[in-house]
Amino acid sequence: MMRPVRWALLFAAFLTIAAGCSTDITEISDVALVMITGVDYDEERGKFIFTAYCILPSATSTEKTDKHHEWVASAQGDSILDAARNLRSRAGKTMNWQHDKFFVIGEEAARHAFYEIVDYMTRSRDIRLTSYILVSEGKALDTLKNKSETNDLLANDLLGRTINQHLWGKSISLTLKDISNWFADPYRGFVTGRLRTNHGAGRSEAGLVLSGGSAFHKGKFIGWLNGQDTLTVYMLSKRKEWNKLEFALRVQSRSANVTLLMHAPKKKFHFRQSDQGPAMDVDMNLKATLMDMDRPLQIQSPETLEQLERAAGREIEEMIEGSLRRFQRDFKADLLGLSDFIRQYHSKEWSRMKDKWDELYPAMPVKIHANVKLTIIGMNQSLEGN
Q1: What pLDDT band is residue 65 in, cutting at 50, 70 and 90?
Q2: Domain named Spore germination GerAC-like C-terminal: which ranges (predicted)?
Q3: What is the mean pLDDT of residues 234-246?
Q4: Assigned CATH class of 226-386
Q5: Any idea what DSSP says for residue 198?
Q6: Where are the domains of the chain?
Q7: Phi–psi pair at 198, nearest 5 degrees
Q8: Quick one: pLDDT band at residue 385, thresholds 50, 70, 90?
C-alpha cells in the first residue's frame, strides 16, 4: 500500500520541477508593458518610425513600488509592420500591448500616411479599439521622451488629462473606435487630440500640453484647432458622453468683468431651405453659475441678472460663429457632423444635396441662438455695501 503512495509523491514532485523549468513560461521580468505607441513618417526617405513607451515591471517584491522603470525604444522600416517588427531587434523583452492607452501620431505621419496608420491599427489584434488617438506637433518620438509635470508615468498623466477634458472643454481625444467609424464618411470630418510641448511658468524643462484639436477630413489631416474651436465642437456635438461639459466664460456686464461656470447646453437643430440654399438654426439653452466678479454688481436685481444673461448669450454666439467661419471657409470640412443631422432627419432633402455637399456646406448659413440662464449666484446676493 505504501509503495503506490511513494510513487505518486515522486511523480508529483517531478511534475513540479518540470513545470518550473518549462520554456513556455514568461517571467514578469521578461515583459515590457507598452503604454503608449508612437508612429512617425519620414516622407523624404519613405520610412516609418515605430516607437514604444514601455513600463518594465519589477521582478521582485522587495523593490520600491514607487520607482517606475520607463523605457522608450524605436525602430524604422518600410511599412508600419516592418518598423514594429524591427523594434524586436532592440527589445530583449516580450512586448505586451494589452495596456496600451494611447497612440501618438507625428504631424508628418498624420499629413501623409494617416490612412495606412488607421488601417494597420484596426487590423492588428494587439491594439485596443479603446486606445486614444493623439496627434503630436513635430515627431511622436520626441514627444514620448518628455517627462510628465506630475512626475507620474507619462501614460497615467495623459489618461488623467483625457478624463478631465470635460471640465474645461478645450481638448478632445477620440478613441480608435470613434475614428474608424467616422474615417470612411466622405461628408463629415472629425477632431481628436492635439499634443504639444510647452515651457510652462516656473519650469526649466518643456512639458506636454494636451490642448486644442487636430482636424481630419476624408481621411486626411487638414489642420490644428485652438481651444475655442475645440470648445465649439464640444458644445454642438450630439455625443451623449460629452453631456457633462463645464467651461469658464468671462463676460463684461456693465462696468464689471464676471466669470461664469457654464454647463453643457441643451440644443436643437433646425434645417430649412431658403432662397439662397440650405440653412440651419441652432437653439441652445445653457445653465450658468456665477463664480466671481472684479467689482460690485447688484445681482439681486432682475434687470442686472437679465443683462448679464444676455451678455453671456452674445459671447457664446460670437465664439461659435467665429469657429464656424473657420470650419466652413478655411477648412471647408463639416467637423460638427451637420451632414449626419440632415441625413437622419431630412433624408429626402439630403438625397438631393449629398452629391453637392462639398459645395453647399462652406456657404450654408448656420445661425446660433444662445439662451443663458443663471441658476446659481453663490452665497452672496450682492457684494456691494458689505
Answers
A1: very low
A2: 211-375
A3: 82
A4: alpha beta
A5: E
A6: 28-225, 226-386
A7: -155, 145
A8: very low
